[in-house]
Amino acid sequence: MSFELVSLKLQVRPNDLDSLGHVNNATVLEYLETGRWDWLKYHKLQIKQKIIPVIARIEVNFRKEIILEDVIIKTKLEEANKLAQYQANFWQSIELFREKNLLVAVEARIQLVFIDSTQRTLRTLQEFLEEANNHNNSIN
Amino acid sequence: MSFELVSLKLQVRPNDLDSLGHVNNATVLEYLETGRWDWLKYHKLQIKQKIIPVIARIEVNFRKEIILEDVIIKTKLEEANKLAQYQANFWQSIELFREKNLLVAVEARIQLVFIDSTQRTLRTLQEFLEEANNHNNSIN
Amino acid sequence: MSFELVSLKLQVRPNDLDSLGHVNNATVLEYLETGRWDWLKYHKLQIKQKIIPVIARIEVNFRKEIILEDVIIKTKLEEANKLAQYQANFWQSIELFREKNLLVAVEARIQLVFIDSTQRTLRTLQEFLEEANNHNNSIN
Amino acid sequence: MSFELVSLKLQVRPNDLDSLGHVNNATVLEYLETGRWDWLKYHKLQIKQKIIPVIARIEVNFRKEIILEDVIIKTKLEEANKLAQYQANFWQSIELFREKNLLVAVEARIQLVFIDSTQRTLRTLQEFLEEANNHNNSIN
């Protein structure tokens, strides 16, 4: 399997703004989640019931305020060659159009682990990817 | 000024849950924000229009899933004696009642900076606290 | 079965507020949903997988602005004797403490239908209640 | 002034979905609000600090479940010739692409009143529109 950086254009909604007209920091996490779903969809992966990705840690740096505008969410799986590991890291950024340039507003690292929902044990990234991928080939 | 660890009991709402019945990670940030508002209120501080706290970085570790239950949000200002600094860190945790014990579900460090909204310059924690405090003594 | 008006005290969170410091109208619907979950819990009813309540229509009157405060959500099933019907109406209100009185801030009527998730057909309130109730008696 | 029906294409986000994979009813109100902001923007109207539109009543019919897809939000001001009235009604719908057709998922009527934020009195639709429009012509 080979993975790419996936970019998604997303509309800010009025409800995302705080009293100063900036996107609230909790809403930024929703944007990042939307980016990861789009990454899964792009790679034709689907979360199944057995092995579930669970967020273990997030680190987010806020560099610029986001206002009522369109943003670009970039999502990339770190070190995708280390498939045997029990965790995976996504690097994500949220970027803004400012005078024909893209400026980074948010940088984030999202650390995931993979839980076997029946046995409650840890599984590897590879095991997660196989399940998420396999089922696409079956009749659904 | 002397600051205390402030504890807030908060109700999880059905809308906070994801499809697995767990509190979504973006919603966890809302809980933490609610805890910081409560910390401000406890210390009789009020955010005014001139010096505005802005989140620069968050780090959150997710240790346990939160379900539809009451949680305790603990909020503490780190190194409150370093008032002359241009940033401040809040340490926060979200804890759960499990068989008469409190278990830590979430641990977070929230790094803030203080922006002068008219001059767009950085201000110190002390300057923020003085403004937030002063105005309480005046007729409002 | 006999049903009662159920009252729930709920905390407004800072994130619920719009730029004017009032609870946003979409958030009011979350409060009402929280009230209905509490009504179900009070009556020891649990939504199961077969018959699912689906909102068909909502009517909400907004009478007072809600600020950062505690609110009371009252939830009542209308005409609970008409169990054979294919729809049910909840009457709900959100009330505020103002100088030792309760003032009505929001009044709402929520119309539900009951869908058989396997057959995609309508079911009656009674059939929903029987399923929601029965399963409580079994070992779960 | 003449007003048009305004259509906005909006992306559903994963966080908008409930445990059954459908857009939650509170989130539907956020979509409608996004549609009204877009309507204002299309007509070059801007909400100012003096006369504030406040939602007095909403009626929403839910006809189809919305899943993770793009939706069209249509927003229209009812009877825009009755400008002297103290209230205004928006008719809104949310529509879905299904096999090259648009299906109505949600129909809503949003009733607004206009409050003078300094005098706390009611104002007319016309007074609101004049303020919202006037200020665009001045240097801001």
Query: Which radius of gyration of chain A do the C-alpha atoms yield?
Result: 16 Å
Q: Could you please say which CATH topology of chain A applies here?
A: Thiol Ester Dehydrase, Chain A
**Which pair of chains forms the biggest interface, and how many residues does each contribute?**
A-B, 18 and 18 residues
Query: Helical content of chain A, roughly?
Result: 10-25%
The CATH homologous superfamily of chain A is named Hotdog Thioesterase
Low-confidence stretches of chain A: none
The tally of beta strands of chain A, per DSSP, is 6
Overall pLDDT of chain A: 90
Question: Which word captures the global form of chain A?
Answer: elongated
Largest sheet of chain A, if any? Answer: 6 strands, antiparallel
Assembly state of the chains shown:
homotetramer
Class of chain A in CATH? Alpha Beta
Structural class category of chain A: alpha+beta
CATH architecture of chain A, by name, is Roll
Head-to-tail CA distance between termini of chain A = 22 Å
Q: What is the string of helix and strand elements of chain A?
A: EHEEEEEH
What is the count of distinct domains of chain A?
Answer: 1
